[in-house]
Write a structure and sequence with these properties.
four-stranded antiparallel β-sheet; single chain; 10 helices; alpha+beta; 270 residues
Length: 270
């Protein structure tokens, strides 16, 4: 049940969090509405939220017997898979960047802006106008008139300089430290959570606790530069990032993941 006196905790990272917690790319609408309710969103608000997500292309709906399910879609699905991969691994430095050089005139500004937006969504960045750098081959966005793709071999010092100019590493470091402080607050709030209680309210409470922890992390992980550690600044908070990774594999997250699987199974069987 939604709590009218409290604001909804559904935020920009909630959808990706719920699919990631269940390790799926499609969820029943009834499951989403129930969890949104535990996050203080009304049932009508949840249905409107899902309708907007379908309308803007983040989700696509399907009928599965008596149920409506919602699958991740389009750019949102690609972004989800990118974030999921970043939780698992970080690339190694192999002595080169992938590079795209583009020459798109002002008369095609909307095309140029769309190219840059697609590249940034794919984890690429720009050290100067007309140049894009990435750690993996470009997607279909680079297959346009005025674009040339290749590889840029550089030594480690030059790679660090280019990374610092292209990616917002100072802001990334601040986000990592803020996230670490947030996770400590979450652990304190949910310290007395009973992981052995399998009642419906207790399962929902454990999913909410995991949401408190992971939804912010999902959003931050999606904005962090996916760069090899070797080309990051010496004062980059690697140790803080390692602690965050350990927390995200810790007891609170494990409890939330088990609870989400139990709830999802109940919805699929209904």
């Amino acid at each position: 049940m939604a709590h009218a006196s409290r604001p909804s905790a559904v935020g920009r990272g909630t959808l990706a969090f719920l699919y990631g917690l269940c390790e799926v790319e499609e969820l029943p609408g009834s499951y989403l509405v129930e969890v949104f309710g535990a996050l203080n969103m009304s049932a009508s608000g949840a249905r409107s939220y899902l309708a907007r997500a379908v309308a803007d292309g983040r989700l696509v709906s399907h009928r599965r017997g008596r149920q409506t399910t919602y699958a991740l879609n389009g750019t949102f699905l690609r972004r989800y898979r990118t974030i999921e991969h970043r939780f698992i691994s970080r690339p190694d430095w192999e002595g080169r960047f992938h590079i795209v050089i583009y020459d798109i005139p002002e008369t095609r500004r909307s095309e140029r802006d769309a190219l840059r937006a697609a590249a940034f969504a794919d984890g690429w960045a720009s050290p100067r106008p007309g140049v894009l750098l990435g750690m993996r081959p470009p997607g279909g966005w680079a297959e346009c008139a005025g674009c040339s793709a290749g590889r840029l071999d550089v030594d480690l010092a030059a790679a660090r300089d280019l990374a610092a100019r292209a990616w917002p590493l100072d802001e990334a470091a601040r986000q990592i430290r803020r996230l670490a402080a947030h996770l400590e607050d979450v652990k304190d709030r949910w310290r007395d959570l009973d992981a052995s209680d399998d009642s419906r309210p207790a399962l929902l409470a454990r999913v909410v606790s995991a949401h408190d922890m992971l939804s912010s992390a999902t959003y931050v992980w999606g904005t962090l530069p996916a760069l090899p550690a070797q080309i990051l600044p010496a004062d980059y908070p690697h140790d803080v990032l390692a602690r965050i990774s350990a927390e995200l594999a810790g007891p609170l997250m494990e409890s939330g993941s088990r609870a989400s699987v139990r709830l999802l199974a109940a919805h699929r069987d209904s």
